[in-house]
Design goal:
By secondary structure, the protein is α/β, with parallel strands linked by helices. It contains 10 helices and 9 strands. The protein has a 5-stranded antiparallel β-sheet with strand order 1-2-7-8-9, with helices on both faces. The chain has a two-stranded parallel sheet with strand order 3-4.
Length: 361
């Protein structure tokens, strides 16, 4: 009798253990299935983001054509994510207003999985390349770009410790990596060095140089996001600071944009980025006032702005009127399962939109 009881107890224990293990295996299997579904949904969102970038260029071309022809801006000429103003009489600049470089954010559903698709304008952020390879070759010592980034943080009321830690992280990641030279290095205000060099190289060579710059910076971007997301030492850098206030690292362009978009850059970015050559708040306001009325169609229009000769020359070389580099941020969620994809794309001189790599977490 005693032996029978012992056997029954052992069998009951084994049955309970088997059921527990089966439940765990089932949950693990369901998680893997959900994870795979999220991954497929996120990849679908990535395709949507790439279409959004293509539509962005078509829209910008329409805007510039309308202004050149003296026509009224068409109601649908602004993609939905940029139009946060309900006033139909808002200026083009108000319609194109953005938050921390976000060009468009769109929520979609793939099957039953919600997906958030976000396209960020990398040319509307502070170029990390300027911090690592300052284009202001004649403007002072190595601390010039650091002071410029610190000034950017000050203008945005960012915590100085966060800003300094972000600068240190950029430098630590970059130290062992092969990095490209600055896209343009302006030696002096009376020398259009970058423009002459580009004419000498020819279109093919310039496109290859551009491709190599983006390829190398994609390696940096991969290491950048890996540190931000997986290294607990830097966890506080990416914590949201307040409602609608992005962490400081989000405001840095890490995908290889070597120039700033004069039409979409914030006043704080313009003031801090060109502080090494003496831009003033008044000059920045002159740029903002001009673009409120119409977008810059070419950098030659800077002749109509109240700028010093030095600032005008540097901005002609280091700014663009249309962005060429974007980062795509996709998040798919299903219950507790979540898949995020980050990718970078750029547009070459032939109008082709090329992918720089995909990061998944």
């Amino acid at each position: 009798m005693f032996l029978t009881m012992v056997i029954l107890i052992i069998l009951a224990t084994l049955i309970v253990q088997f059921q527990a293990e089966s439940a765990l295996q089932l949950r693990a299997s369901n998680y893997r299935i959900d994870m795979q579904r999220c991954r497929y949904a996120a990849e679908s969102g990535l395709v949507v983001a790439q279409v959004m970038v293509a539509e962005h260029y078509e829209n910008i071309a329409r805007i510039h054509r309308s202004f050149r022809a003296g026509e009224e801006l068409e109601e649908d000429a602004v993609i939905s994510g940029w139009n946060r103003f309900s006033d139909p009489n808002a200026t083009w600049a108000e319609r194109l207003a953005y938050d921390t470089g976000i060009t468009e954010r769109q929520a979609i559903t793939v099957g039953d999985i919600p997906v958030l698709v976000e396209v960020q304008d990398e040319n509307a952020k502070y170029p990390v390349l300027w911090l690592l390879r300052s284009p202001f070759a004649s403007s002072g010592g190595r601390d010039v770009p650091e002071r410029s980034v610190e000034h950017f943080g000050e203008l945005l009321d960012m915590d100085s410790a966060i800003v300094n830690d972000t600068i240190r992280l950029v430098q630590e990641i970059a130290e062992p990596l092969p990095l490209p030279a600055a896209e343009v290095t302006v030696q002096a205000p009376d020398q259009a060095e970058g423009r002459r060099r580009r004419r000498h190289l020819g279109l093919t060579a310039v496109m290859e140089e551009n491709r190599e710059r983006h390829r190398l910076m994609a390696v940096f971007a991969n290491a950048w996001y890996t540190e931000l997301f997986h290294n607990l030492e830097y966890a506080e850098l990416i914590e949201p600071l307040a409602e609608n206030v992005e962490p400081f690292p989000v405001l840095l362009g890490v995908w290889g944009a070597g120039k700033i978009n004069i039409n979409t850059a914030s006043p704080e970015l313009l003031e801090s980025a060109f502080a090494p050559v003496g831009i003033t708040e008044h000059m920045v306001q002159s740029i903002v006032d001009y673009r409120i009325e119409r977008p810059f169609g070419s950098m030659a229009e800077l002749r109509d702005i109240d700028l010093s000769g030095e600032v005008r020359q540097y901005m002609r070389e280091l700014c663009v009127t249309a962005s060429d580099t974007f980062s795509l941020h996709i998040t798919a969620s299903l219950g507790r399962t979540r898949c995020e994809i980050i990718s970078g794309v750029y547009r070459n001189r032939r109008g082709e939109i090329l992918n720089m790599g995909i990061l998944t977490r």
